[in-house]
Structure formats: C-alpha cells, structure tokens
Design the sequence.
C-alpha cells in the first residue's frame, strides 16, 4: 500500500478513439480449438454482470524448458475494503447478491460525495462525485480515485485471461488510520481484519468455483506451496498467494520505544498466519513498530503518516546520517492540516536535517526473532517499507543462512540492495506506474536480471491508496489500438465494458484491475517487446524464489561448541570475554580482543571438513580489515577470503569450498577505537 507522486499528463482528445478500431478487422480469434471446449467460460455466471471483452483460449502448460509462463502481480489488495474499519475502500470484489450490491459506494458518499472525507484527502478538491457504481460508473472506478473498489472479480478474470498467472493478495489494514477515520462499521484490531480478509478470499474462490460447477473447478485458485502454484499455472488458471501488509503484525506495536508484544506473541501469530495460508509478509509498514523501522513517505502524505506515527507510538520519526550509499526517502515536510489537527495541544511537527536521510530505527531483536521465525516456516520476507537500516540487517541475516525468500514487490526498496536480493535468489517487481516510467525503471535494472537469469514483475497495489497510471491521451501518437492480441498471441482483447461504461486505457488510464492487459500492451508500445518478455517470465521467477525457500535447509554450524583460541582476550573482573564465548550459541555472550589491530580468533573443528561459508556476528567493535584463513594443522594458514571495507553487523564470507580442520578470523584493522568483538562465529559447508 503506497502513495505515488502524481505525474502531469497532456490534455485528452478524441484522436485515440478514432484510431482504436484500426486493428479490429485484422484481428480474430487465434487458430486452433481446445479439446476441452471453452473450459475457461463459466456455465452459471450471474446476470447481470460485467463483461470480460477477451476472446480466445487462455494458454496452458509450460514452455519447452518446463518453465511456467505468464505475468505475476506481486502486490495487490483484493479485500482491503474489509480493513481500516470497513468504510475506507468502498465496494466489494464480489457479492452473492450480484454486481449492483458489490459495486456500490459507501453510505456516507451519497448523494454527491460531500462526506467522502478520505476521497478529498487523497484526491484533492472537495471529494464530490457521483456515488453510483453499477450500472453507470460515471466517476469511479478511476485511476485517481483511491477509495473505490478496483478488484471486482471479473476485472481480475480479465487480467487472468490476458496472461496473468500469479497474483499475490496482500491482506492489509492499519489500526491507526481506522481509529482516526470518521466512518467505520467494525473495530480496528489489525489481526481481526487480517483473519476476515483471508476468509473473504477463500469465499471468493468458492464464489468463482460455483460458476464452474463446484469446488476446485474455477480459475481463481488459492495456493499454499510452489508446486501447487505450478500445477495451477500449468492448467492455465490463476495462482493466488496470500501475503500480509500491516503496521502492527501480531500486535507488535511500540509505545515510547517499549515493545507491546513478546516472542510468544510472534510465534502464535506466525503459526496462525501460516494456517490461514499466508506465505509472505511485511514486518513493518508506514509506522515504526516493535519489529523494525520504516522507509519514510514524502510530501504532505509523509507529514500525515508521521502524525499517525506519533498517535500510534508516542514518537515521531527520528533520523540520522546514513552509513552507506543507501538512504530512506526524505521525510515529507509539506503541511497536512487535517492530519496535524489530530496532534495533542502543545505538540508540533519536528524539523529534520536534509543531511540525515536514514531512520534511526532498524531491525529490532524482536524483528530478528520474527524474521528467523518466518524462515523456519519457509515464508518469504517483503523488504519494501523497511528502513535501509532494517533492510540491511535483514539481508545480512538472510545471507548468513543462504535463505532466498526475499521479495521487493512495488518499488519501495532502495535499488542499492537489488543485487544482494538477486544474489540470494530473491525476486523484485516494479510499481504499476505509467508505461514510460515503468519501462524506464525496468530497463535500468535489466542488466542485473540478465546476470542472474530472472524475469520481472509488477505490483499493481490496487485498492492500496497508491494511484495508478493516468491516460496518455487520445492524441498520443502511439496509443493502445483496440482490439489487440495478448502477449502469448492466443487471445484478442478489446475495450472493457461494465454496465453502461466502457474503459479505454488511452483516455481513462488504469482505472481498475481489468485494465492490466491494456497497460501491459501500453508498456509494449512505449517500452518495447523486451520489457514485456521479461514480464512474461515473471511467474516462473517468483515461483523459483518461493520453491527455493521451501527447499532451504538450515546449515549445520561446524563451529558450534568447538575448541576456540584467540590472540588475546579483553580482561574484565565481572564478565568473561574468552574465545569460547563466540561459539557457545548465545548472542548474550561474546569474545573480545585486546585493543590493537593484529588479533585473531581460531576454532578447531575436530576433524577435516568442507568449509564454504563463514558468518561473523560483530558487536560494535568490529573488523574493518580482516581475512578468513584455514589450516590443516593449526600452524600453517592460507587466506580464502578477505575484506578492507568491513562495516560491522552480520557479515557473511563465501568462497570456493576448501577442506580444513582449523578456521581463523584474522583482524588487521579495527573499525573502532576498541578491539575486535564477536557475538558468534559460524562455519558452514553449504
């Protein structure tokens, strides 16, 4: 759920409408008929209902290499109308009573939108609009209407028919936004909302199944493991993955820097989410919590969210100078009067130094515990919205375990982390911006994708209060020309009609989820076929990351409990800093050396073993220049890895496998005025 900056567009004309029919005569259904005639068409669709406006059979199967084909949306919010108190996003993705009941506005928006408070906060103006959805849809859904349902089930069906094969439905809410918003019809507990949204997603699956003759027969398939997802895609259907994006997962908020949850709460929460089918999640979102600090928002929205941060936690965002090239977004300093009025008397917004671009809050001890709990349950971490301090530490932990389950799903991660993510085996997508912006972002990173052999994806963030591609205009010289063929060539896609309204990407932009195929065609026209080709490989790459996470096995630490020795030990009459404290399996103890540069810590593995990876969990007193050495006899040492740019934290040294009995960390240059100090040293064969 992300707010994007608006992009100024040229005025609209009717030229694109005159060009739209140019291909209509030449395009027809693709040749060849399925033996399973019209398997994609329901036998009992509700009437009346939205049109799909796609003809031809959806593709099935895999390519010649056995890879699944198709697009992946790694960040959508189908059920966000059930979050935030139930009245922030108006309309539902389906209803047993039909489309007229599903696509109707919130009660307070009638008769003219005067009380559409969140609408005018997010869109500007006075919020007034025609509240009628079905059948006229005069004013919504629209690319810049952030409070109306965009995920009606037939619109998702159109995206599936247009080539999408994986969709991540992030269950989302925000307790603070719920509590301060004027209109709600339920409580604001985040986990209660998550449970409801999960259940509604399963209800939607059953709703679609019913149209096709019973359980398991519909195209909307919730999956809980990667092999199940692959089978669904091979059948030509849509694999739906459940994720979570909340600010206080498991009740893990912090008040005045005091955590309001425990390890037991985290374990119970993770177990419950896993039972619900959730396989990916964010540890923090918008507000700092007991698990991690967030990547800031900009502009007036950033000011409003910082107010929410204070109301939720008792503290505003705090910044510091960044220690590396990565940085958080600049904090929004523009006024947000309606939000600032919520502050208690005498409390005002702080000022921030332009030189301090990083959140002081990183990944907390509870956050590390939650991340390791996710890894044990084979879940994937979403790093978007994490502060760079939190994301950097999370990547350190993932690297130390060689765990590939890391996702950046909608352009909210510093791009300086991208190669680390790909090296781990993770997956990244771009936010569903306009075709020009999206294509440019894709091309900036295509060399890395080629290097690591991965595809690309997009994050629509529909129903996520983010804003979506505006129309390029009817007079654009290179419009989307309707009808057009799907990327695989097997379907023909025309303008989408629901009720009395027909949408055209050229003049309406990406108003709802059904416009995803139109937007992809626009990306092809503006960015080139190679961008779309990378997108068409996205489902396979996402499933590779997921599958590798499921297959991951924690490495055996060969150094655990091993005999350890050191060049020196810092003396303290009350605490032991002996060498063995670095291999005792506890982060509450550590080895510390004397305060000079040339120091070492060595472990005897007991017998020769294959060594390929060494992890070093530094205390603040870390090594800036050091090397990893191995030996057969503990006397003659050879260097297998070295660095001159150590920055502390959790380091992972990888190198070609060698057989050795002894492993030594040899410090040559300190990173602080003190000595060298390690909480834990790990030695691994994998």
Sequence:
């Amino acid at each position: 759920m992300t707010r994007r900056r608006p992009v100024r567009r040229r005025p609209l004309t009717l030229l694109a409408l005159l060009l739209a029919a140019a291909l209509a005569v030449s395009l027809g259904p693709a040749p060849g008929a399925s033996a399973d005639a019209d398997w994609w068409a329901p036998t009992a669709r509700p009437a009346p209902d939205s049109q799909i406006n796609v003809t031809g059979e959806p593709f099935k199967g895999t390519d010649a290499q056995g890879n699944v084909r198709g697009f992946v949306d790694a960040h959508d919010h189908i059920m966000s109308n059930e979050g935030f108190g139930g009245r922030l996003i108006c309309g539902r993705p389906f209803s047993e009573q039909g489309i007229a009941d599903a696509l109707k506005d919130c009660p307070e928006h009638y008769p003219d939108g005067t009380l559409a408070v969140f609408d005018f906060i997010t869109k500007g103006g006075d919020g007034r609009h025609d509240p009628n959805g079905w059948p006229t849809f005069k004013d919504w859904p629209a690319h810049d209407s952030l409070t109306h349902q965009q995920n009606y089930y037939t619109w998702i069906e159109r995206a599936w028919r247009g080539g999408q094969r994986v969709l991540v439905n992030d269950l989302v809410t925000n307790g603070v936004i719920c509590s301060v918003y004027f209109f709600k019809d339920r409580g604001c507990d985040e986990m209660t909302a998550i449970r409801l949204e999960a259940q509604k997603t399963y209800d939607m699956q059953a709703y679609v199944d019913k149209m096709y003759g019973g359980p398991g027969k519909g195209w909307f398939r919730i999956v809980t493991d990667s092999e199940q997802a692959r089978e669904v895609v091979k059948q030509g259907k849509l694999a739906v993955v459940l994720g979570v994006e909340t600010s206080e997962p498991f009740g893990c908020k912090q008040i005045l820097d005091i955590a309001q949850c425990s390890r037991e709460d985290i374990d119970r929460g993770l177990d419950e989410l896993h039972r619900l089918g959730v396989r990916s999640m964010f540890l923090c979102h918008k507000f700092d919590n007991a698990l991690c600090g967030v990547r800031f928002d900009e502009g007036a929205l950033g000011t409003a969210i910082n107010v929410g941060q204070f109301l939720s936690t008792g503290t505003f965002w705090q910044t510091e100078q960044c220690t590396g090239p990565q940085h958080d977004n600049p904090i929004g300093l523009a006024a947000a009067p309606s939000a600032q009025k919520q502050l208690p008397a005498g409390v005002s917004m702080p000022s921030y130094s332009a030189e301090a671009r990083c959140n002081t809050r990183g990944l907390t001890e509870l956050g590390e515990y939650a991340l390791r709990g996710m890894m044990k349950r084979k879940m994937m971490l979403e790093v978007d919205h994490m502060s760079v301090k939190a994301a950097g530490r999370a990547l350190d932990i993932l690297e130390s375990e060689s765990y590939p389950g890391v996702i950046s799903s909608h352009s909210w991660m510093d791009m300086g982390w991208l190669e680390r993510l790909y090296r781990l085996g993770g997956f990244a997508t771009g936010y569903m911006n306009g075709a020009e912006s999206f294509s440019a972002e894709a091309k900036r990173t295509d060399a890395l994708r080629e290097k690591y052999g991965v595809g690309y994806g997009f994050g629509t963030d529909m129903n996520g209060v983010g804003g979506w591609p505006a129309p390029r205009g009817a007079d654009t010289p290179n419009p989307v020309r309707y009808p057009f063929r799907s990327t695989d060539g097997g379907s023909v896609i025309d303008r989408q009609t629901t009720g009395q309204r027909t949408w055209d990407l050229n003049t309406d932009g990406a108003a709802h989820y059904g416009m995803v195929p139109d937007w992809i065609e626009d990306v092809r026209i503006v960015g080139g076929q190679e961008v779309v080709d990378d997108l068409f490989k996205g489902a396979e790459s996402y499933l590779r990351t997921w599958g590798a996470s499921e297959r991951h096995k924690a490495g055996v630490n060969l150094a655990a409990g091993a005999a350890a020795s050191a060049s020196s030990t810092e003396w303290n009459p009350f605490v032991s800093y002996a060498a063995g404290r670095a291999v005792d399996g506890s982060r509450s103890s550590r080895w510390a050396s004397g305060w000079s540069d040339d120091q070492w810590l060595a472990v005897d593995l007991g017998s020769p073993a294959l060594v390929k990876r060494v992890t070093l969990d530094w205390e603040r007193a870390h090594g800036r220049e050091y090397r990893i050495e191995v030996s057969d006899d503990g006397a003659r040492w050879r260097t297998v890895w070295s660095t001159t740019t150590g920055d502390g934290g959790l380091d992972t040294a990888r190198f070609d496998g060698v057989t050795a009995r002894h492993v030594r960390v040899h410090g040559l240059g300190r990173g602080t005025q003190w000595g060298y100090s390690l909480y834990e040293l790990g030695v691994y064969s994998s």
Notes: The mean pLDDT is 92.
